[in-house]
Amino acid sequence: MSISQTIETLTGADQFFEVVDLETPAGSLPGFKHAPSTLIEIVQNARGHGATDFIIAGDVRLSFSEFFDRADRLRSYLETNGLERGQRFAIAMRNSPEWLIGFTAALLAGAIVVPINSWGRYDELAFAIEDSQADWLLCDDQRAKTIEDLLDTNRRLVVFDRAEPGSVRGIDFETATADLPPADVVIPPSDEHCLMLYTSGSTGTPKGVVHCQQALAQAVFNMMFTGMLSMTVEGGLRELRGGATQEKALLNVPLFHATGLLGSFVLPLVTSQAIVMLPKWDPQVALGLIERERVTLFSSVPALVKDLLTQPNIDDFDISSLLRVSSGGAAMPSDLPEIIEQRVDKAYASGGYGMTETLAVGSQAAGQVFDAKPASAGVKSPIMAIRCTDAEGGVLPLGEPGEIEMRGVACTRGYWNKPEANAEIFTADGWMKTGDVGYVDDDSYLYITGRIKDIVIRGGENIFPGDTEQACYQIDGVKECVAFGVPDDVMGEELAMLVRIGADSKLDETSLREALTERIAGFKIPRYIELTREPLLRGATVKFDKRAIRDAFLNRSG
Asked: Is residue 499 a contact partner of residue 480, using CB atoms and an 8 Å limit?
């Protein structure tokens, strides 16, 4: 049975993942029939995991029961002190158990949770707090000291300080919540807003993306479907190995973005996985945690997956428990699947494509479904329609690259207080423009080739920087690379590329150009190439900050 036939079977009538037309705020759209109508119902079901380990963060270890006990008591405290349904509840904290507890408490109380980029400086934090019109702010002590002057009598501040576990600024948390029995959780309408995620702002001012309960429930079910599809194709669930006794995921991506929030928090919550928290990215610390905690799942952007698996001393660590390696959020370097296969025995690799605006729903693949076409971004989701269009908006046939447009139950209905941006992103017939360039093949696999704004037009010839980057990644010694356009008086634009090489690499510009000449057409070879041994600049999503890299290059070039 082909993968397409397997998807058709799994989503057919009377199946657990049956897909039917659902009523949504945007009209009738395909969705999973048996998914709960709200994210709150999904979270509530996780209470049944009881004494199973859930959070591991340094010396802190919490079972599911202990986690929900703390979330319920915080919810009671918030409701007693005035938190109302529909109020914006912002969270500005580094990844921590308190972040997860705070999110769950506010969600169950009916608030619209607003995760804020905790990596931001004062201006960035202030923008999100003011733009979202946050009524409440939960933060750690470091963020509280940064933005405390923004607070007024109309905004409540709750501060968790890891230096004093269990405390909230101004009160003793344990004492204050001791006599507060949790109220019953109200199941809201499926179209009630419950989450506002901010875009990364890599191409302008960040925008608040609003999502409803139904969209989140469908997005979580979509992640579960990906696992079921892989398991069905492979003929069963893979057994734990390397001394692992429970599925454990290493959390290393920000919780303030969709992939981290849903894939690294809500999905483990639903499926009874433990979350092993990594305070900040350090491949050596990550390898140590994988060894000590017998981690089974590592999920991150392609660059960090590659960074982990190409550490020179990786053989000094026992990572035999690692079963699944997931990569998404950016185009995958062509050499990464081979690296995963070499370093992780019988690796269960996966990848996907999605956006903040779609709750990371778009395309996905895992296991043999991924292995069939590892250069792709996976098979398009059964609850997301995808088409590719030309510059005039005409729909292109399969296999031809164009702007990717999506329409589905997980798509946002719009940005927070941004009517002009909403008019720009949605077509007249309700499709959402992604700004990404790609194509869908005959087997429904999606391929990402670049960003529309990244396309370099050199003398009338379109150059996709992603093509050049993929060729560069095939060259021994290349660790990271970013290609981008720069102004040119003669050609209009020229291609430039910043390349990070390994510490011991003998690559120079001449040898790099020669290697590229063997792999791609001459017009795709950059006019300007700059080599460095320093890590390339990344933004909060851990993706390369192309705009900042380009600006810095232009400044250096005069």
From this structure: yes
Could you give the angle at the alpha carbon of 455 between the alpha carbons of 451 and 461, nearest 5°?
150
Q: What is the DSSP secondary structure assignment for residue 366, as one 8-state letter?
A: E
Q: Based on the domain organization, do 183 and 164 belong to the same domain?
A: yes
| Nearest residue to 462 via CA among 495, 439, 489, 435 | 495
Residue 353 identity: Y
Tell me the pLDDT tens digit for each residue of 361-384: 999 999 999 999 988 999 999 999
- 222-279 pLDDT, tens digit per residue, is 999 999 999 999 888 889 999 999 999 999 988 998 989 999 999 999 999 999 999 8
Bridge pairing between strands 478-488 and 492-501: antiparallel
- The residue among 523, 493, 524, 529 whose CA lies nearest residue 508 is 529
- Percent helix, strand and coil across the chain, each rounded to 5? 35, 25, 40
CA distance 58 to 242: 22
Do 433 and 523 reside in the same domain of the chain?
no
As a whole number of angstroms, the distance between CA 22 and CA 235 comes to 30
Angle, alpha carbons 263-94-292 (nearest 5°):
65
96: containing domain: 65-206
Q: What is the pTM of this model?
A: 0.86
Residue where a domain stops, chosen among 206, 227, 245: 206
In a domain, 406, yes or no: yes
Tokens of 398: 């399969």
CA 418 to chain centre: 23
Residue 111's SS3 state is coil
Given 418, 451, 484, which residue is the final one in a domain?
451
Q: Hey, what are 388's tokens?
A: 């590719």
**Residue 39: inside a domain, yes or no?**
no
Query: Within a domain: residue 379?
Result: yes
SS (H, E, C) 194-246: EEEEECCCCCCCCCEEEEEHHHHHHHHHHHHHHHHHHHHHHCCCCCCCCCCCC
pLDDT in tens, 294-344: 999 999 877 789 889 999 999 999 999 999 898 766 666 777 888 888 999
Q: Decide: 200 and 97 in contact? Cβ < 8 Å.
A: no
Three-class SS state of 456: strand
Structure tokens at 17: 């993942």
Strands 379-380 and 384-389: unpaired
Q: 191 lies in a domain?
A: yes
Instruction: Tell me how far apart the alpha carbons of residues 492 and 461 are, in angstroms, rounded to a whole number.
Output: 10
